[in-house]
Amino acid sequence: MVVIRLARGGAKKRPFYRIVATDKRNSRDGRFLEKLGYFNPIASGNEKRLEMNVERVEYWISNGAQLSNRVAGLVKEQSKSTPAA
User: Which spans in the chain are helix H?
Assistant: First the structure.
């Protein structure tokens, strides 16, 4: 099953996460199918906290991908901040 979840990067005590679509059996930071964006929980100043390709996330969901709890919250946050067209 395909799952959309966070893959951790960054240095010790300075996390940086990629939002990825991956097979559930792969390790957290292992192989992934597609990078869908990033999440920087300690962003400050002009740094972006969240960047996500919402169209690709919707594509994966329509093909049966499951969202992790954290990514589901981030998708909701991203949809709030993006004005409806």
Answer: 54-62, 69-81
Contact 49, 41 (CB under 8 A): yes
Place of tokens 């964006």: 37
Per the CB < 8 A criterion, the answer to whether 20 and 35 are in contact is yes
State pTM to two decimals: 0.89
Matching residue, tokens 């929980």: 41
For residue 24 the two structure tokens come to 């559930």
Secondary structure of residue 9 in the 3-state scheme? strand
Residue ranges of the chain with per-residue pLDDT less than 70: 83-85
Look at residue 73 and give its three-state secondary structure.
helix
Which CATH code is given to the segment(s) 2-81?
A: 3.30.1320.10
Ranges of each domain in the chain = 2-81
Distance CA 1, CA 71 (A): 16
